Amino acid sequence: MSNTEPRPEEVPLRASVVRAVDVIEGRKAAIGDGTEVRRLLPKRELRTIGAWCFLDHYGPDDTSAGEGMRVPPHPHIGLQTASWLFDGAVLHRDSLGSEQLIRPGELNLMTSGRGIAHSEESPEERPALLHGVQLWIALPDGKQDISPAFTSYGNLPVIDDGPARITVVAGEHGGERSPATVFSPMTGLEVALLEAGEVTLPAAAGFEYGVLAADGPAAVACPASTAPVTIAPGQLAHLPVGVPAITLSAPGPSRFFVVGGVPFGEKLVMWWNFVARTAEEIRIARETWENGDWDEVHGYPYGARLAAPPLPPGLKPR
Ligand code: MN
To answer: 76 C-alpha to center of ligand 1: Å?
Structure first.
């Protein structure tokens, strides 16, 4: 995914503002071709959840008639992108030469490190429905300049827990550990309720959590601390450090995506597709991309790479 707002604002990222269990309203945004997404992170009132610093939820969209997803080549620094589908298929290409189709149940994890470029498109042969989440993970200090990498994980641990089927996308849950390489204490889970019911997930010590409902209104509760809250697609429940457990329930088959982690204490500057520590790093990355001095993505069939938007005043040299 790429942030394609014509004039994206500078978003200084700080540690999450933790008040109480909260429902965060996403905002509608457009990516690439105009695909509409619900942006749940970053928000003014909640910048990050652990090292998770960006969360878009999109679909379900019927892509049988139109073009589907088309996000031209664009750059990233300082982060990992995690792509997860509930329905459909997306083809990823990157400047390392990777070309990888992702399907539901699989994780595409791209580590930008010091710099990478990629594109995303709906393949010509595809299921009609497209529905997924695009997440970014900030690389912690000392890891932001590592070499770029791309890995597709097709065999993630799956745990059956009552009516729930839990896929361990990142980190650890229920004694199972995701093979995905991450650099901060964190977790990422898909929780599918296969029928009406509930499941309780223990919370890790020191972790805050966010929960999105993929399908419809569903309930999130913290035993012994708060009343259940109801979330619908487009909303994110934020659970602060200290909750003992998280109970998810729904009146029928329903899917959730859960992110968690130790609150990210570092001051970050996030602009366009870059996560950095200083405005200077952002300026250099933008200039390098605009000058074409960046490894190319080959094979994207739908036109030119994205141009960087103009820098906002807050990131221009003083
Ligand atoms: Mn991207």
So the answer is: 7
